[in-house]
Amino acid sequence: MNLYLLEKKLQNLISEEVGKEKAKKILDKLKVFLINDEKLGDYATNLIFLLREFAPKKEKIILEKIKKEFKQFSKIEIINNYLNFYLSDYELLKTFRLIYKNKQKFFNQNFGRKQKLNIDYVSANPTGPLTLGNTRGAVLGDALNNILKLVGFCVTKEYYINNRGMQIEILGKTILAHLGKIPWENNFYQGKYLKEIAPRIKVNHDAIRKPEKIGRKIADYILNNLIKPTLKKFGTFFDWFFPETELYANNLDKKVLKILKKKKLIAEKDGALFLLLTKLGGDKDEVLIKKTGEPTYFFSDIIHYWYKFFIKRNKIEILIVASDHLDHTRRLKLALKIFGIKNYQFQPIVYQFVHLKKSGKLLRMSKRRGVFITLEYLINEIDPGIVRFFFLQKSPEIVIDFDLDLAKKESEENPYWYVQYAYARLNSILEKAGKTINIDPQKVFLKIKDIESAKIILRKIHQFQDLTYLIYREKRVNLLIEYLISLAKKIHNFYEKEKILPDKRKICFVYFLKEFLGFVLSCLQIKPIKKI
Fold first, then answer.
1. Class of domain 121-243+352-405
2. Torsion on CA atoms 164, 170, 172, 173, rounded to nearest 10
3. φ, ψ of residue 37 in degrees (nearest 5)
4. Domain 3-87, what fold?
């Protein structure tokens, strides 16, 4: 029994026992959640509150049925008006035996049903090196990719290259200014890296009249020499890099415009072409093509997603972007409804920025002004695994104040090392034990089920399926870090309380724990450390 199955069983029971109208009200508000305090059980639900509000006469009947039919639990009780469920030893044995004998069968679920899902992340404008904000996008995208594959989606990872438009023109002009071809302007990119790149680019006299063409050359250079090598070093890889210019090379803009005109959602105002989003409930109409004839980024994104949904035939698209794109994602979601794209098919994840804290002070950054900390600098200072761990600790909507001094500390004060130390302790026991003996999991379980600290660990391990379900449903990959820290605490407690050697069944349990903890770390692309 896991969280998903418990939800389904409760939903089915309510639908059977309560009238359709009341059942709908209950199911709309029904919540089933994990309990972190093992003394209070494994799962809890607010069902009692809802029955008392909407169907008080059914409370006793439904409660009796739950206690009679939900055999997977050793105890079901009401605590503070919540209904709490305690997993039976048999359920824990089933989990232990399944992971022990067939890890993949336990870890892999089928919520995705092999649907094509694409994640667009990082996708930094190719105007400079990757920054801390881009890094947060990389960490979120990588972890989400790993979990969504576990729950049954066919996932692809995309880097979308914004290689046209005003920013690319400004990039070209910046290079021309560095070469002394045009005067310097305040809105040019001020990073030193462009001054270093400029002499390597050959420009002729015509280039002054075509700065966007020079900008594209520089964008390609930055992508191939500053962005891709850093991503590789960090361990982030993409299935495809898709340039914005390709949308127009294939005349997709004309196809999409034709659809919008047919739906009477296009109007010309002051020489520009507008999408009439107000007809769909939007706050205002949006420019698709400027009066200069230049397509906007908004139009490019509409074309891009039309291409991915209707030509590549992706079922679900996840877009991970920084908070300065929040309004853009809202407009895009509304625009995609024109083509019949449902809310669940386009899922934007908007994350807040990262502030670097060093020597107790926050550093202020601006990419345009050339004042920023790069990912390259960060992974030269600390291991990429530490970056991933710290950047996933908070949910996307919370700003990260990344404490570089704490991240560098190799002590239990640093949560990364606290988790790694748990793995190293398990490994040290196995090294002392020598060859691991394969013992029947039921015999191992019979030994450890009466050890309180070990049984608590098993209950935590059972929750891993619930964790991947919640991440699939809510896209909150920070739950992985919370889970790891909690699991590590329980492993440390077991290590410190129990005499393990030379008991062969306890040694087998330790081997099982080490393998499990190593797998969870791999979901974050963090390498476990055997010795500290």
1. alpha beta
2. 150
3. -95, 105
4. Gyrase A; domain 2 (3.30.1360)
Over 330-368, what HEC string results?
HHHHHHHHHHCCCHHHEEEEEECCEEEEECCEEECCECC
* C-alpha pair distances (Å), 164 with each of 175, 207, 216, 326, 497: 16, 16, 7, 21, 62
HSE-CB for 283 with a 13 A CA cutoff = 5
Number of neighbouring beta carbons within 10 Å of residue 284: 9
Domain ranges of the chain: 3-87, 101-110+411-523, 121-243+352-405
Nearest 5°: CA angle at 70, between 69 and 75?
Answer: 120
pLDDT in tens, 83-114: 999 999 999 999 999 999 888 899 999 999 99
How far apart CA 524 and CA 522 sit, in angstroms, is 5
CA distances from 217 to 159, 205, 212, 418 (A): 18, 16, 9, 46
Q: Which two tokens stand for residue 388?
A: 């991933």
- Enumerate residues 6+ apart whose C-beta is below 8 A from 279: 265
Question: pLDDT for 493-512, tens place per residue?
Answer: 999 999 999 999 999 999 99
What is the Cβ-side half-sphere exposure of residue 408, based on CA atoms within 13 angstroms? 11
pTM over 0.85: yes
Going edge to edge, which strands form the sheet with 316-322? 240-243, 154-161, 116-120, 316-322, 346-351
Q: Look up residue 470 and give its two tokens.
A: 């919640």
